[in-house]
Every structure is written in C-alpha cells, then in structure tokens.
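Async update (no meeting this week)

Hi team, since we skipped the sync, here's where things stand on the single-chain job. The sequence we agreed to prioritize is pasted below, unchanged from the tracker. I ran it this morning and attached the output directly underneath so nobody has to dig for it. Comments welcome in thread, and please keep replies under the output.
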Amino acid sequence: MKNKILGISIICFLIFNAGMVINTSGNEQIQIKETEKIPLNDINLEPIEGNEEELSQIEKEPLTTLSDGKKGSCAIVIKQFLPHSLGICMKNTCNFAIEKLQKRGYNNILYIDTPTLKKLSEDMIGFINDNLGEQQRIFFYLTAHGSSIGSQGSVQINPFQMLRDDVFASYINSLPSYYSICTVVMESCEVGSFIDDLSGPKRIIITATDSDSSSYGTPLGLSPFSEKILNSYGAGDNLKVAWENADAYIYENQYHLYGQNPQLDDNGNGYSVGNYAEVDVLPMDDGYTSNPNNWDGNLAAKDTKTKQKFNIIDLRKTLLNKIFDNFLDLRELIKKYIFR
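Output:
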C-alpha cells in the first residue's frame, strides 16, 4: 500500500512540476530536432486540413507578459510546444532567458510558449509597438525544431504551422524604426539559414548553429549554447563577449565534432561568421567586407546595458516608502520592548 501511494505521489509530482528546472547528473545530449527531418515542402503555413479546431485552441492559450508599465526596452521569448523531455529543456531555457533579460534591463517581456503565426504577427508586434521606447533595444529569443532546404529555413512553432525565415523577417521588418539595436538569438537545428533574411542595419543575428548542422539540448536541463550566451549577457557582458563565451564552450565541450557551429552577423550584409574548427574571436571578416570597422562583431560589442532614465518622482516615492516601512518597524519595536 505504501509503495502504491508513493508511486501515485511521484506521478502527480511529475505532472504538476513538468515545467520546473530539473538537473540530470549525466551529460547525455539530444538534438533539438527529430531523428528524421520534417518534410518542409509538404507542410503548409496555413492550418492543415482537419486541424482548424486544434489550432483554434492553441490560439486561445494566454500570453505571459512581464512589464513595469513604462515604455522602454522589449524582449520576446518564444518556444515551440513539446510534451516530452526536450520540451521541458526548451521551457527551462526560456525561463532562464527571461531571468537573464530582466537582469539585463529589459523592462517589457512577452513570453509566447504556444506560438501561432497569428500570435506572432499580431500580439507580438502589437506588444512591441505599445511598449518600445525611443532608442531602446529589442531582443528576440526563439527555440524550436528547425530545418532547412537550400537557403529556405523553417522552425516548427506548433504541430500545425511552420515559421519560415522570410515570414519571420517580414515581422521584424515591420517593427518601429526608432529602436537602437534589435537582437535575434535562435536555438534550433540548421537555423543559420535564417540569417540572410533577418540581417539588416542595427541588427545582431545570432544562431546556435549554421544552416547545415544540429544544435543540442540537455534532457530536462538547458540548451548549452543558449545557457552560456544568456548567462554571460545577463551578467553584464556585451553580446560580442557573450557570443565568444558560448562559442568557446561549444568547441571545448566537443559539440563541434557533431557539427554544431554558432554563427553571428551584425554588419547587415547577410553573411555570418563562425568556424566550427576553432574558438572564434570577434570581430571577424565574413569574406565580403574589406573594412575591419565593418566586420561582424563590432555592433555586438556596442550593445551595452540599458540605461534607465532618472525619474525624481519615482525616487521620491521609493524614499517615502522606505521611510514609512522603517517607521512601522520602529513602532513595532517600541511596542514590543517599551510598552510590554
């Protein structure tokens, strides 16, 4: 009887805590894609016939927003919904991304853990339009199954829809032009195929690997590339240093032997840098830019921490609140030790 109760308790724990960060003692790694590539040429961006009802249910899933109600910098965190251990890895990594982006000063964050094309084209763009301040930063983090055919890249955002590179680029091209820097970090297999479409002025495009190789995640843990770059960025490093740290980790831990090859493009020409055979140091020549001042990595070095505007009203409110809190504490001490 005790064993039965224990077994039921364990099952309930796993069901209700599937989204928690669970560390494994081993170093087993799994690819962020199925064993066989998704036949992208057989998948339509419109709902698959007969699944409109299921897609409609996904559309109704609520979005998660973290905001102080003030215009400023914006971050969008997106993950593909998956019900197994790799899905938990993606969810853990997204939670980790949110934590580090908050530390970095992003005061408006939208988390989409059940994305659809409608949510991305309407809710995501609307959130940025409503919350982005003048000369503030935008940061996209996306993790999902990915694949490519030729130069065409796609990631699966739900069981019925793919997000193509040109479609994602159309969303980013529609953003307000007054941002300072727009950063896109993508953790998917063969996701380097997105770079040529996403590239542009004032943009830093970072992918966990190139257009031909896999990226990897730890079951029930975190995706190593994302963990390293986000941890470094959240600690205050610029994206040049953060990318170098993540790239070095991938090489030193021999992910490169399986083909993982992190990429970066920030000069707007659509050609990225990243060499799987060695640890890379930015800035680097992508082979299409003769002037070292325009090499990839220069803009990433300029992405410094957001400076919050000084607000005398907020400061006064904070001071008054602290004085009031201290007064209440003092009153309790007087009541406790003098009038007892």
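Quick observations from my side:
The first strand starts at residue 30 and ends at 31.
The mean pLDDT is 82.
Reply here if anything looks off.
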